[in-house]
Design goal:
mainly alpha, elongated
Length: 326
């Protein structure tokens, strides 16, 4: 197994791909922080980058931990756009003009285009179950950024695993595979090494990114509902009142199941293919195939397509399905 792991990791292409992955990973996280902007209409403060995250946390803390009708009215009053702003945006719904997390969330769910109350109550919008609110933008943004990182990880795993069988149909390895223990012990060592490597690498990527996110965001918003968020977050398509912490747990779980399935798929293709290039191209094609299929989300076939690795990595599509009876 150690011998197989060394063979997988010592290739120059793999080392270059690993370095490139780490650099892009860090770049995506830094870009996500640099894109942050917050404006507080009450105090007139505005901030960017890390300071914007801190200001957004302070604004979110003003309105309590549970969403109530009184809190909604207070937010709508605090974030009521001026006549000059309404003229400037020219009929665009105020929820699209982001100032801070609470403003976009309350105006998306409870405001008309001009910022006035749309008549909806909390119970009408979200049901009677208490809705925990707070600064969820940070963790939702991280989750969205993490999907891009995981897609890159999937591509890296394809490069890592493609030659595990198909690259060894020449030379001494070909002879070893024909010996008494070649088809069982050698093959089992390759399979074990592949799963050990991919699952360990995935765990390391998860731990690295979660640690960096926690250092920047802290625990704020982890125990708040994903439903009370701005219009830009597709997490609202998940039909369950769950917290950011629970959502991240599902995302982590589905990351491991996606990697497990992807590893098995590449191992099978590598065993059937004569060259690593054929394995790589075929596996990449199968990975992206689900988004190319003309299957509507309302189709009964869609819920099975949503179980493939790509949709597990893009976990929102899978979690947006209604719970199955079995």
């Amino acid at each position: 197994i150690y011998f197989e792991l060394r063979k997988l990791l010592q290739r120059r292409l793999v080392l270059v791909a690993l370095l490139l992955f780490l650099l892009i990973n860090l770049f995506l996280l830094i870009s996500a922080v640099n894109e942050q902007y917050t404006y507080d209409p009450v105090s007139g403060q505005q901030a960017y980058n890390l300071a914007a995250i801190q200001l957004d946390k302070e604004i979110s803390a003003r309105y309590g931990n549970i969403l109530t009708d009184a809190a909604v009215q207070q937010m709508l009053s605090d974030f009521q756009p001026t006549a000059e702003m309404l003229t400037r945006i020219g009929g665009i719904h105020v929820a699209y003009i982001r100032q801070n997390s609470m403003q976009t969330a309350v105006q998306y769910h409870f405001a008309n285009a001009d910022g006035s109350w749309n008549g909806q109550t909390v119970a009408q919008q979200f049901g009677t179950e208490p809705l925990a609110i707070g600064y969820v933008t940070g963790w939702l943004s991280f989750s969205r950024c993490f999907i891009k990182i995981l897609l890159m990880l999937a591509a890296l795993l394809l490069i890592l695993l493609a030659p595990i069988f198909s690259g060894e149909y020449n030379g001494m390895d070909q002879l070893l595979l024909t010996t008494r223990y070649g088809r069982c012990k050698c093959s089992l060592a390759k399979i074990t090494a592949a799963f050990l490597l991919t699952l360990t690498l995935t765990a390391a990527v998860l731990a690295y990114n979660l640690l960096l996110a926690y250092l920047v965001l802290g625990s704020n918003g982890l125990d708040c509902s994903i439903l009370f968020s701005g219009i830009s977050f597709s997490e609202q398509s998940i039909p369950y009142n769950i917290t950011c912490r629970t959502m991240l747990r599902y995302q982590i779980l589905l990351t491991f199941t996606a990697v497990f399935m992807l590893t098995g798929m590449v191992l099978l293709l590598s065993a059937l293919s004569k060259t690593p290039f054929v394995t790589l191209i075929t596996a990449a094609g199968l990975l992206v195939l689900p988004i190319l299929l003309p299957v509507q989300e309302t189709s009964s076939l869609y819920r099975f397509i949503a179980l493939l690795p790509l949709y597990q990595i893009q976990f929102l599509s899978l979690m947006s399905l209604q719970q199955w009876s079995n």
